């Protein structure tokens, strides 16, 4: 009987990838692809590039599964793999990457921080679905794309006051709904 992807051991993952077991691959993909996408997005700050990097990681796992050896926790292996791919892509694009960033080591506390960040992002994305589409769009442009309110107003052809009002509505909604989740 198959288990969920979060509970696949390194040995099971290695054997499944080595034998091109579609069920094991699917479990790993379904369990980790979203978290890997969020982590990649955090590194490269480009959703399309992040999707490509995650896709390429899974293609690599499928094609090279016979020669790969996952040791330790599968999740840690995948997080490290996507982090390396992101850093390589950033270097390839000649963006500034500090030495500290390049020397990042996967220790349990840093992975827990990343996990907490990803879980918070997932929760935030779920709560954003409760906003009106235009309000959600304005919030995403401000908080995800990092646009100034004046840029948002210009791009959407609305007044600056409308942008501020919609951001206030979104923040109030999120505060109310996310505060309710804390116990």
TrEMBL record:
It holds the Pfam family Sigma70_r2. The keyword Phosphoprotein does not apply. GO terms for molecular function: DNA binding; sigma factor activity. It comes from the Bacteria. InterPro entries: RNA_pol_sigma-70-like, RNA_pol_sigma-70_dom, RNA_pol_sigma70_r2, RNA_pol_sigma70_r4_t2, RNA_pol_sigma_r2, RNA_pol_sigma_r3/r4-like, WH-like_DNA-bd_sf. One of its GO terms (biological process) is DNA-templated transcription initiation. Residues 29-95 form the RNA polymerase sigma-70 region domain. Residues 124-173 form the RNA polymerase sigma factor 70 region 4 type domain. Keywords: Sigma factor, Transcription, Transcription regulation. Belongs to the sigma-70 factor family. ECF subfamily. This is Sigma-70 family RNA polymerase sigma factor. It comes from Chitinophaga oryziterrae.
């Amino acid at each position: 009987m198959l288990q969920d992807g979060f509970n696949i051991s390194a040995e099971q993952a290695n054997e499944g990838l080595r034998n091109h077991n579609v069920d094991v691959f699917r479990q790993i993909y379904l369990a980790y692809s979203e978290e890997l996408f969020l982590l990649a997005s955090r590194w490269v700050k480009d959703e399309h590039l992040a999707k490509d990097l995650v896709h390429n990681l899974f293609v690599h796992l499928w094609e090279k599964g016979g020669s790969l050896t996952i040791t330790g926790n599968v999740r840690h292996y995948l997080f490290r793999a996507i982090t390396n791919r992101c850093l390589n892509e950033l270097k390839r694009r000649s963006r500034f990457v500090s030495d500290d960033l390049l020397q990042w080591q996967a220790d349990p506390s840093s992975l827990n921080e990343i996990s907490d960040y990803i879980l918070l992002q997932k929760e935030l994305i779920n709560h954003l679905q409760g906003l009106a589409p235009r309000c959600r769009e304005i919030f995403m442009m401000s908080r995800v794309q990092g646009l100034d309110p004046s840029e948002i107003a210009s791009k959407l052809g609305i007044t600056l006051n409308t942008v501020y009002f919609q951001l206030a509505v979104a923040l109030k909604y999120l505060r109310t709904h996310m505060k309710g989740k804390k116990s």
